[in-house]
Design a protein that fits this description.
The structure is a single chain. The protein is mainly α. The chain folds into two domains: 26-134, Arc Repressor Mutant, subunit A, CATH 1.10.10; 141-192. It has eight helices and three strands; from the N terminus they run H-H-H-E-H-H-E-E-H-H-H. The protein has helices spanning 26-31, 36-43, 46-56, 64-76, 85-105, 128-131, 141-164, 170-192; strands at residues 61-63, 109-112, 117-120. Strands 1-3-2 form a three-stranded antiparallel beta sheet. The longest helix is centred in the C-terminal third of the chain and has 24 residues, at 141-164.
């Protein structure tokens, strides 16, 4: 864990944990002796961001097994009860060998490797403001709503094309068919991707 040399618990220069949901200023990051490079080194990996988000959402201390299951469920989009042992093991090994030791070194989490316990640490709150900006498409209800609305609109546009086949305006039919095809293609890609 990176700490200020000679800092004591009651020292006013010693960084303390920030209240949940507070705005963290750049000066506070500098006083915490964790640089922007280290901050973004942790944040550049999606799995590490998920660990931080999970801990900040209220699970202040968890076991490695619980964390691996929760992260595997988020990565696969399944319920915790539905993940396979292989999916859990893949996440467990990555957390155990790579992510948690690095996060512990930077003070992002407190990782007790022998006991397999992970908890929030002195610098965990510094990451919170950057996590709120990380909006993932797979977690977005708006993306699913938009895709379903687009598919419904495409279905409504198909009716005039079919009925227009009886009419004589070929240009209108071709343009409408191209628009419907593009709308269906984009919506299907966004929904299933």
């Amino acid at each position: 864990m990176i700490a200020k040399p000679g800092a004591k618990a009651g020292d006013p220069e010693s960084p303390g944990p920030e209240p949940a949901g507070s705005e963290v200023e750049p000066a506070e990051i500098e006083r915490a002796q964790i640089g922007f490079d280290q901050l973004f080194e942790i944040l550049k990996n999606k799995r590490r961001r998920r660990v931080l988000r999970y801990l900040l959402e209220g699970e202040e201390e968890v076991t490695l097994d619980e964390l691996a299951e929760a992260i595997a469920a988020r990565e696969t989009g399944k319920d915790v009860k539905q993940i396979t042992s292989q999916e859990r093991k893949r996440v467990y090994v990555g957390l155990y060998q790579c992510h948690l030791p690095k996060m512990d070194d930077y003070g992002a989490v407190s990782y007790n490797k022998p006991r397999g316990r992970i908890a929030t640490a002195e610098h965990t709150d510094l990451f919170e403001r950057y996590l709120s900006a990380d909006v993932e498409a797979e977690d977005s209800d708006w993306t699913r709503y938009h895709s379903m609305l687009s598919l419904a609109a495409a279905a409504v546009l198909v009716v005039p094309v079919v009925l227009g086949a009886i009419g004589s305006n070929v240009t209108l039919q071709v343009v409408t068919a191209l628009l419907v095809g593009a709308l269906v293609g984009v919506s299907a890609f966004r929904y299933f991707a």
